[in-house]
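Retro notes, structure queue

What went well: the backlog is down to a handful. What didn't: a couple of records were mislabeled last round, so from now on we paste the full input next to the output in the thread. Example, using FAD-binding domain-containing protein from Hevea brasiliensis:
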Amino acid sequence: MMEERKGKRSKEGRDQKKCYKRKELANMQQRKKWKFIVLHRGNMAKSCLNSGVELGERLKSGNHISVGDNKPKELPNGGELRCLRRTDLVKALANDLPWDTIQFGKQVISIEEDPITSYPILHLQDGSVVKAKIVIGCDGVNSIIATILGLNSTKLSPTCVVRGFSYFQNGHDYGSKYHLLSNVNDRVKLGIVPVTHKLIYWFVTRKWNSQDLKISRDRMLIKESTVELLKNFPQETVELIRNSDLESLHLTDLRYRSPWDVLKTNFRKGTVTVAGDAMHAMGPFLAQAGSASLEDAVVLARCLGEKIQNKPMKGTRVKEMVEEGLDQYLKKRKMRVFWLCLQTSLLVQSSSHHPCL
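Corresponding output:
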Protein backbone atom coordinates (compact mmCIF):
# COMPACT_ATOMS: atom_id res chain seq x y z
CA MET A 1 0.00 0.00 0.00
CA MET A 2 2.83 2.39 0.94
CA GLU A 3 4.60 1.60 -2.32
CA GLU A 4 1.43 2.39 -4.29
CA ARG A 5 1.06 5.76 -2.54
CA LYS A 6 4.72 6.56 -3.09
CA GLY A 7 4.43 5.65 -6.77
CA LYS A 8 1.29 7.75 -7.11
CA ARG A 9 2.97 10.80 -5.51
CA SER A 10 6.00 10.35 -7.74
CA LYS A 11 3.81 10.22 -10.85
CA GLU A 12 1.87 13.30 -9.70
CA GLY A 13 5.15 15.15 -9.19
CA ARG A 14 6.33 14.27 -12.69
CA ASP A 15 2.99 15.33 -14.17
CA GLN A 16 3.17 18.67 -12.33
CA LYS A 17 6.69 19.32 -13.63
CA LYS A 18 5.64 18.39 -17.17
CA CYS A 19 2.73 20.81 -16.85
CA TYR A 20 5.13 23.49 -15.60
CA LYS A 21 7.41 22.88 -18.58
CA ARG A 22 4.48 23.22 -21.00
CA LYS A 23 3.37 26.46 -19.29
CA GLU A 24 6.89 27.90 -19.44
CA LEU A 25 7.19 27.02 -23.13
CA ALA A 26 3.81 28.64 -23.74
CA ASN A 27 4.90 31.77 -21.84
CA MET A 28 8.12 31.87 -23.81
CA GLN A 29 6.18 31.56 -27.05
CA GLN A 30 3.95 34.47 -26.01
CA ARG A 31 6.95 36.64 -25.14
CA LYS A 32 8.79 35.82 -28.35
CA LYS A 33 5.96 35.09 -30.75
CA TRP A 34 7.34 37.57 -33.28
CA LYS A 35 11.00 36.53 -33.07
CA PHE A 36 12.14 34.93 -36.33
CA ILE A 37 15.47 33.65 -37.59
CA VAL A 38 16.40 34.09 -41.25
CA LEU A 39 18.30 31.04 -42.48
CA HIS A 40 20.59 31.06 -45.48
CA ARG A 41 20.40 27.81 -47.42
CA GLY A 42 17.26 26.75 -45.57
CA ASN A 43 17.16 23.19 -46.90
CA MET A 44 20.50 22.46 -45.24
CA ALA A 45 19.25 23.84 -41.94
CA LYS A 46 16.02 21.86 -42.19
CA SER A 47 17.84 18.62 -42.91
CA CYS A 48 20.07 19.27 -39.90
CA LEU A 49 17.08 19.75 -37.62
CA ASN A 50 14.87 17.03 -39.08
CA SER A 51 12.42 17.57 -36.25
CA GLY A 52 9.25 18.86 -37.85
CA VAL A 53 10.05 22.57 -37.52
CA GLU A 54 8.00 24.62 -39.93
CA LEU A 55 10.05 26.88 -42.17
CA GLY A 56 8.81 29.78 -44.25
CA GLU A 57 8.68 29.94 -48.03
CA ARG A 58 11.76 29.20 -50.14
CA LEU A 59 13.17 32.49 -51.43
CA LYS A 60 15.68 31.67 -54.13
CA SER A 61 15.99 35.10 -55.71
CA GLY A 62 15.56 38.75 -54.91
CA ASN A 63 15.41 42.28 -56.23
CA HIS A 64 17.34 45.40 -55.30
CA ILE A 65 15.86 48.82 -55.90
CA SER A 66 17.75 52.07 -55.45
CA VAL A 67 15.23 54.72 -54.36
CA GLY A 68 14.95 57.36 -57.06
CA ASP A 69 15.87 54.91 -59.79
CA ASN A 70 13.02 52.46 -59.04
CA LYS A 71 14.37 49.95 -61.53
CA PRO A 72 14.62 46.53 -59.89
CA LYS A 73 17.90 44.69 -60.35
CA GLU A 74 18.22 40.98 -59.81
CA LEU A 75 20.31 40.16 -56.74
CA PRO A 76 23.02 37.50 -57.04
CA ASN A 77 21.71 34.05 -56.17
CA GLY A 78 23.72 32.93 -53.14
CA GLY A 79 21.34 30.13 -52.22
CA GLU A 80 17.86 30.15 -50.76
CA LEU A 81 16.62 32.04 -47.70
CA ARG A 82 14.03 30.71 -45.26
CA CYS A 83 12.34 32.20 -42.21
CA LEU A 84 12.04 30.15 -39.03
CA ARG A 85 10.07 31.17 -35.95
CA ARG A 86 12.44 30.98 -33.00
CA THR A 87 9.90 29.51 -30.60
CA ASP A 88 9.14 26.67 -33.04
CA LEU A 89 12.82 25.75 -33.00
CA VAL A 90 13.07 25.90 -29.20
CA LYS A 91 9.90 23.82 -28.75
CA ALA A 92 11.10 21.19 -31.25
CA LEU A 93 14.39 20.84 -29.39
CA ALA A 94 12.67 20.85 -25.98
CA ASN A 95 10.24 18.10 -26.98
CA ASP A 96 13.11 15.69 -27.57
CA LEU A 97 14.54 16.22 -24.06
CA PRO A 98 13.58 14.43 -20.84
CA TRP A 99 10.78 16.21 -18.99
CA ASP A 100 13.00 17.44 -16.10
CA THR A 101 15.89 18.73 -18.25
CA ILE A 102 14.92 22.38 -18.78
CA GLN A 103 14.91 25.01 -16.04
CA PHE A 104 13.66 28.50 -16.81
CA GLY A 105 14.64 31.84 -15.29
CA LYS A 106 18.22 30.80 -14.53
CA GLN A 107 21.15 33.12 -15.21
CA VAL A 108 24.81 32.29 -14.63
CA ILE A 109 26.81 34.95 -12.81
CA SER A 110 30.05 33.05 -12.23
CA ILE A 111 31.75 29.68 -12.68
CA GLU A 112 34.35 28.05 -10.47
CA GLU A 113 36.21 24.77 -10.77
CA ASP A 114 35.42 21.95 -8.39
CA PRO A 115 38.69 21.39 -6.47
CA ILE A 116 38.10 17.63 -6.40
CA THR A 117 36.65 16.74 -9.82
CA SER A 118 37.77 19.83 -11.81
CA TYR A 119 34.25 20.03 -13.27
CA PRO A 120 32.55 23.46 -13.43
CA ILE A 121 30.31 24.73 -10.62
CA LEU A 122 27.78 27.33 -11.77
CA HIS A 123 26.61 30.09 -9.44
CA LEU A 124 23.22 31.43 -10.54
CA GLN A 125 21.58 34.79 -10.02
CA ASP A 126 18.90 33.33 -7.74
CA GLY A 127 21.58 32.07 -5.34
CA SER A 128 21.41 28.44 -6.39
CA VAL A 129 24.41 26.35 -7.40
CA VAL A 130 24.63 23.78 -10.20
CA LYS A 131 27.40 21.20 -10.51
CA ALA A 132 27.82 20.44 -14.21
CA LYS A 133 29.97 18.17 -16.32
CA ILE A 134 29.70 20.19 -19.54
CA VAL A 135 28.76 23.87 -19.92
CA ILE A 136 27.95 25.25 -23.38
CA GLY A 137 27.24 28.97 -23.26
CA CYS A 138 24.60 29.94 -25.81
CA ASP A 139 23.73 33.18 -24.05
CA GLY A 140 23.97 35.59 -26.96
CA VAL A 141 25.96 38.68 -27.87
CA ASN A 142 26.36 39.78 -24.23
CA SER A 143 27.41 36.31 -23.10
CA ILE A 144 28.45 35.87 -19.47
CA ILE A 145 30.08 32.54 -20.36
CA ALA A 146 32.17 34.19 -23.10
CA THR A 147 33.36 36.81 -20.59
CA ILE A 148 34.30 34.05 -18.13
CA LEU A 149 36.31 32.38 -20.91
CA GLY A 150 38.23 35.62 -21.39
CA LEU A 151 36.67 36.95 -24.60
CA ASN A 152 36.53 40.68 -25.15
CA SER A 153 33.12 42.34 -25.30
CA THR A 154 31.36 42.37 -28.66
CA LYS A 155 31.80 45.55 -30.69
CA LEU A 156 29.02 48.05 -31.29
CA SER A 157 28.15 48.77 -34.91
CA PRO A 158 27.22 52.35 -35.89
CA THR A 159 24.20 50.82 -37.58
CA CYS A 160 20.94 49.96 -35.83
CA VAL A 161 17.98 47.95 -37.06
CA VAL A 162 14.21 48.17 -36.80
CA ARG A 163 12.41 44.85 -37.23
CA GLY A 164 8.74 44.08 -37.62
CA PHE A 165 6.01 42.00 -39.22
CA SER A 166 3.05 42.91 -41.37
CA TYR A 167 0.09 40.61 -41.93
CA PHE A 168 -2.08 40.76 -45.05
CA GLN A 169 -5.45 39.11 -44.60
CA ASN A 170 -5.96 38.73 -48.37
CA GLY A 171 -2.34 38.01 -49.22
CA HIS A 172 0.55 40.27 -50.23
CA ASP A 173 2.01 41.08 -53.66
CA TYR A 174 5.68 40.44 -52.92
CA GLY A 175 5.70 36.89 -54.29
CA SER A 176 8.43 34.44 -53.30
CA LYS A 177 11.32 36.87 -53.60
CA TYR A 178 13.14 38.95 -51.04
CA HIS A 179 13.38 42.66 -51.78
CA LEU A 180 16.03 45.20 -50.82
CA LEU A 181 15.48 48.94 -51.20
CA SER A 182 18.20 51.45 -50.40
CA ASN A 183 18.54 55.20 -50.23
CA VAL A 184 22.13 56.12 -51.07
CA ASN A 185 21.97 59.64 -49.65
CA ASP A 186 20.53 58.72 -46.24
CA ARG A 187 22.25 55.32 -46.01
CA VAL A 188 18.94 53.67 -45.23
CA LYS A 189 18.11 50.15 -46.29
CA LEU A 190 14.77 48.33 -46.22
CA GLY A 191 14.57 44.55 -46.50
CA ILE A 192 11.32 42.71 -47.20
CA VAL A 193 11.23 38.94 -46.63
CA PRO A 194 8.00 36.99 -47.26
CA VAL A 195 7.40 34.35 -44.58
CA THR A 196 4.11 33.05 -45.99
CA HIS A 197 1.76 34.39 -48.66
CA LYS A 198 0.13 36.48 -45.91
CA LEU A 199 3.00 37.37 -43.57
CA ILE A 200 5.96 39.67 -44.25
CA TYR A 201 9.08 40.05 -42.12
CA TRP A 202 10.81 43.38 -42.75
CA PHE A 203 13.81 45.26 -41.39
CA VAL A 204 15.21 48.76 -41.75
CA THR A 205 18.90 49.52 -41.14
CA ARG A 206 20.13 53.04 -40.54
CA LYS A 207 22.66 54.97 -38.48
CA TRP A 208 22.14 54.92 -34.71
CA ASN A 209 21.47 58.36 -33.21
CA SER A 210 21.16 59.90 -29.74
CA GLN A 211 17.33 59.67 -29.73
CA ASP A 212 17.19 55.94 -30.34
CA LEU A 213 17.48 54.88 -26.71
CA LYS A 214 14.22 56.74 -26.01
CA ILE A 215 12.57 55.58 -29.23
CA SER A 216 13.44 51.93 -28.61
CA ARG A 217 11.27 51.93 -25.45
CA ASP A 218 8.10 53.04 -27.24
CA ARG A 219 6.76 50.90 -30.10
CA MET A 220 4.55 53.69 -31.41
CA LEU A 221 7.61 55.95 -31.64
CA ILE A 222 9.44 53.18 -33.47
CA LYS A 223 6.65 52.98 -36.04
CA GLU A 224 6.25 56.74 -36.45
CA SER A 225 9.99 57.39 -36.79
CA THR A 226 10.38 54.57 -39.32
CA VAL A 227 7.45 55.80 -41.44
CA GLU A 228 9.01 59.27 -41.42
CA LEU A 229 12.41 57.84 -42.33
CA LEU A 230 10.95 56.06 -45.38
CA LYS A 231 8.86 58.95 -46.68
CA ASN A 232 10.87 59.03 -49.93
CA PHE A 233 10.51 55.30 -50.46
CA PRO A 234 7.71 53.83 -52.65
CA GLN A 235 4.30 54.37 -51.06
CA GLU A 236 3.51 50.66 -50.80
CA THR A 237 6.59 50.12 -48.60
CA VAL A 238 5.59 53.01 -46.33
CA GLU A 239 2.16 51.40 -45.97
CA LEU A 240 3.86 48.09 -45.16
CA ILE A 241 5.47 49.74 -42.13
CA ARG A 242 2.38 51.73 -41.19
CA ASN A 243 0.23 48.57 -41.15
CA SER A 244 2.72 46.45 -39.21
CA ASP A 245 1.77 44.73 -35.97
CA LEU A 246 2.75 47.12 -33.17
CA GLU A 247 3.78 44.33 -30.80
CA SER A 248 6.26 43.00 -33.35
CA LEU A 249 8.34 46.20 -33.56
CA HIS A 250 11.83 46.33 -32.10
CA LEU A 251 14.66 48.84 -32.45
CA THR A 252 18.06 47.50 -31.42
CA ASP A 253 21.71 48.27 -31.83
CA LEU A 254 23.86 45.75 -33.67
CA ARG A 255 26.89 44.02 -32.20
CA TYR A 256 29.53 41.81 -33.72
CA ARG A 257 32.53 39.77 -32.63
CA SER A 258 35.96 40.93 -33.76
CA PRO A 259 37.42 38.31 -36.13
CA TRP A 260 40.76 38.64 -34.35
CA ASP A 261 39.11 37.66 -31.06
CA VAL A 262 37.79 34.54 -32.79
CA LEU A 263 41.23 33.73 -34.14
CA LYS A 264 43.23 34.17 -30.94
CA THR A 265 40.77 32.90 -28.32
CA ASN A 266 40.82 29.31 -27.11
CA PHE A 267 37.03 29.24 -26.41
CA ARG A 268 37.46 26.48 -23.82
CA LYS A 269 38.33 26.20 -20.16
CA GLY A 270 38.05 22.64 -18.92
CA THR A 271 34.62 21.46 -20.07
CA VAL A 272 33.22 24.97 -20.59
CA THR A 273 32.77 26.37 -24.10
CA VAL A 274 30.43 28.58 -26.16
CA ALA A 275 28.33 28.37 -29.32
CA GLY A 276 26.12 30.61 -31.43
CA ASP A 277 26.23 34.39 -30.95
CA ALA A 278 28.22 33.93 -27.76
CA MET A 279 31.07 32.72 -29.98
CA HIS A 280 30.56 34.56 -33.25
CA ALA A 281 28.09 37.44 -33.02
CA MET A 282 27.78 38.86 -36.52
CA GLY A 283 24.47 40.70 -36.66
CA PRO A 284 22.14 40.23 -39.62
CA PHE A 285 24.57 41.52 -42.23
CA LEU A 286 25.26 38.19 -43.93
CA ALA A 287 22.02 36.32 -43.13
CA GLN A 288 24.29 33.61 -41.72
CA ALA A 289 24.04 33.94 -37.92
CA GLY A 290 21.14 31.51 -37.48
CA SER A 291 22.55 28.94 -39.87
CA ALA A 292 26.01 29.18 -38.31
CA SER A 293 24.52 28.58 -34.85
CA LEU A 294 22.72 25.46 -36.07
CA GLU A 295 25.96 24.29 -37.64
CA ASP A 296 27.65 24.75 -34.24
CA ALA A 297 25.07 22.51 -32.61
CA VAL A 298 25.41 19.75 -35.20
CA VAL A 299 29.22 19.76 -35.18
CA LEU A 300 29.37 19.89 -31.38
CA ALA A 301 26.97 16.96 -31.01
CA ARG A 302 28.94 14.88 -33.50
CA CYS A 303 32.31 15.63 -31.91
CA LEU A 304 31.12 14.80 -28.40
CA GLY A 305 29.23 11.74 -29.62
CA GLU A 306 32.30 10.33 -31.34
CA LYS A 307 34.29 10.64 -28.13
CA ILE A 308 31.90 9.45 -25.43
CA GLN A 309 28.96 7.59 -26.95
CA ASN A 310 28.79 3.90 -25.96
CA LYS A 311 32.26 4.00 -24.48
CA PRO A 312 32.55 2.74 -20.89
CA MET A 313 34.73 5.23 -19.00
CA LYS A 314 35.19 6.28 -15.41
CA GLY A 315 36.53 9.24 -13.47
CA THR A 316 39.01 11.59 -15.07
CA ARG A 317 38.94 9.66 -18.37
CA VAL A 318 35.43 10.95 -19.05
CA LYS A 319 36.54 14.55 -18.55
CA GLU A 320 39.54 14.04 -20.83
CA MET A 321 37.37 12.66 -23.62
CA VAL A 322 34.87 15.51 -23.27
CA GLU A 323 37.70 18.04 -23.52
CA GLU A 324 39.04 16.27 -26.61
CA GLY A 325 35.57 16.41 -28.15
CA LEU A 326 35.26 20.14 -27.40
CA ASP A 327 38.71 20.78 -28.90
CA GLN A 328 37.70 18.91 -32.04
CA TYR A 329 34.49 20.97 -32.26
CA LEU A 330 36.41 24.26 -31.92
CA LYS A 331 39.02 23.19 -34.44
CA LYS A 332 36.31 22.46 -37.01
CA ARG A 333 34.39 25.68 -36.35
CA LYS A 334 37.08 28.31 -35.78
CA MET A 335 38.07 29.17 -39.35
CA ARG A 336 34.49 28.92 -40.61
CA VAL A 337 33.23 31.50 -38.10
CA PHE A 338 36.42 33.59 -38.42
CA TRP A 339 35.67 34.25 -42.09
CA LEU A 340 32.06 35.10 -41.32
CA CYS A 341 33.11 37.54 -38.59
CA LEU A 342 35.76 39.02 -40.89
CA GLN A 343 33.16 39.69 -43.59
CA THR A 344 30.92 41.32 -41.00
CA SER A 345 33.77 43.46 -39.68
CA LEU A 346 34.69 44.66 -43.19
CA LEU A 347 31.06 45.57 -43.87
CA VAL A 348 30.82 47.52 -40.63
CA GLN A 349 34.07 49.38 -41.28
CA SER A 350 32.95 50.35 -44.77
CA SER A 351 29.44 51.34 -43.66
CA SER A 352 30.24 55.05 -43.74
CA HIS A 353 30.98 54.68 -47.44
CA HIS A 354 28.75 51.73 -48.35
CA PRO A 355 24.99 52.34 -48.42
CA CYS A 356 24.14 48.66 -48.70
CA LEU A 357 25.11 47.68 -45.16
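Agreed that this is the format going forward. Reviewer comment attached to the example: Residues 1-6, 28-32, 352-357 have pLDDT under 50 and may be disordered.
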